[in-house]
Amino acid sequence: LQGQIPEAQRRQEGDTLYIQCPYQAWTTDKETKYWVFEAPGARQNIVYTYYESTKKSRDGRTEIKDNSTSKTVSITMTDLKVQDSGTYFCAVYRNGYLQLRRISLNVFRAHIPGVFQGPNSTELRCQATSLSSENTFIILTVVLLILLLLALVTSVALGVRHYRLLGRAGNREAEDSSDRAEGTAQPGSTGKRESPKGDSKGPTYINLEVQSHPSPEDPLYCNVEPSQAPRNPQHVEYAIIAFNQAPRSERE
Predict the structure, then answer these.
(1) In terms of C-beta density within 10 A (0-12 exposed, 13-18 middle, 19 or more buried), how is residue 184 classed?
(2) Which of 32, 124, 150, 155 is the most buried (most CB within 10 A)?
């Protein structure tokens, strides 16, 4: 078997290799069986067994078992790695290795092209966290801008309303000043308009100062300018003025 081409065995990294090596009838049970790694110019005994025993290698990944009933040696290699690739043979040692079976093991690494490789879970979590942070920042910025605009509009509206109220108050003061102007009376008399202090909405009075002594038959009246006329006719009060005739002295 040493000059023959070894059997090709191809496995993926992490797989298991299981082979059987039958030995001839003339091989006794007590002879030691070996599983050997053959490198250029060197050989390494990985594991061996004899007489119905099961043995494991130092790393625990290779196991060999001798079955004397079926006269077969079974080899199992688990958790294969790329560096396990090479030529192996099982043999009985008798003044040298008497090879029973040779194999050429090729362990390859599972490779997925980069164009088909997606991001791992860590990258996905990082991307999701980044997107969540950006979305939160955008939402907060929009909310703050809306609140700022609302505050600006409210300030402008309050300012306009205050300005209008000031304008109305000024107009009322001007009207009250005109209401306090003097009224007109008939010729020969003077009239003054008076109103209660502190109450511009109360009744207004006209005082007449008669300069001469009119006769009881003479009419007495008073003119009121439009600016002095009350705004609410319901609150207009009327008064009748009458003069009592003074008794004449006997001299007259």
Answers:
(1) middle
(2) 32
